[in-house]
Specification:
Blueprint (H helix, E strand, L loop, with lengths): L3 H10 L5 E7 L5 H13 L4 E5 L6 H12 L6 E4 L12 E7 L5 H17 L3 E13 H6 L10 H13 L4 E8 L7 H10 L3 E5 L5 H10 L3 E4 L9 H12 L15
Parallel strand pairs: 1-2, 1-8, 2-3, 3-4, 4-5, 5-6, 6-7, 7-8
Helix pairs in contact: 2-3, 6-7, 8-9
């Protein structure tokens, strides 16, 4: 049975072409600043706020940041942890990710096993997510020891996504990398979309109208905006991106897993 946040995502996708999640790195901002960014992101039309980071951060600081954001927005606040240190009881849900193309079993199942009891004790809603670093990688790829995919073999990425689907993961997150200069190539998104019937999240390097449109038209259900939020005047561009994402295109509805009542 789906939880409240999973139902919210499905409901939003039923009327929008795609969703836009704002990603705030709690290690980069004090709680007050993070809350201000989140508030502006919601005003610009973002459907949820992701809070995370690729490196270990202070747990107390994370809790304060998540709570400050929660106090200022009404959209869901979802954790996007890079490790077991990225769990806070103050969030609505957590992307419970497995880095499928890591060479280190710790990032495939070890961290998840250690963090599972914390998620349970905090009653966080887990969103089972296959996490695939299919681009430059950045800090996330370095820390997670992600194996690089051949750039001319998008079908290999698609097979990892299909495996995630068969393993019961309702979400797949294609990551170009934290601070990536280029986005996930559209042919990779299309290849994954062809095989994966769940909710497809695409992030990394999406920071303007063009890159957002290409990712959505290639098949992304959710796009994640992070780097753009580090600029001073991000709201006009972010508003344009959310307008593009939320406008349903006739005959272009992506196939997704049905909602379980």
């Amino acid at each position: 049975m789906l939880g409240r946040i999973a139902k919210y995502i499905d409901e939003q996708l039923s009327s929008k072409e795609a969703l836009v999640f704002a990603l705030i790195d709690s290690g980069n901002h004090p709680p007050e600043t993070a809350a201000q960014i989140a508030t502006k992101a919601q005003v610009a039309g973002c459907d949820a706020i992701l809070v995370g980071g690729s490196t270990a951060i202070d747990q107390i600081a994370l809790n304060r940041t998540v709570q400050a954001i929660k106090n200022n927005v009404t959209v869901p606040v979802i954790l996007f942890p890079g490790n077991v240190t990225g769990i806070s009881p103050n969030a609505d849900a957590i992307l419970f990710t497995s880095l499928l193309n890591s060479d280190d079993p710790y990032f495939i199942i070890g961290a998840q096993a250690l963090g599972s009891i914390i998620v349970k004790e905090h009653s966080l809603e887990p969103l089972a997510t296959g996490y695939i670093i299919a681009g430059e990688g950045g800090a996330a790829g370095f820390v997670g020891q992600a194996r690089r995919f051949p750039p001319n073999k998008p079908e290999l990425v698609a097979l990892y996504a299909l495996a995630a689907y068969y393993l019961g993961m309702r979400y797949v997150y294609l990551e170009a990398g934290s601070g990536a200069e280029s986005t996930i190539p559209p042919n990779t998104i299309r290849a994954v979309r062809k095989l994966f019937d769940g909710v497809l999240i695409v992030g990394g390097g999406i920071k303007d109208e063009k890159s957002a449109r290409v990712s959505i038209e290639s098949g992304a259900d959710i796009i994640v905006i992070g780097n753009l939020l580090e600029t001073k005047q991000f709201m006009p561009t972010l508003k344009t991106i959310t307008d593009i994402a939320h406008k349903r295109q006739p005959g272009n509805k992506n196939v997704r897993l049905p909602t379980t009542k």
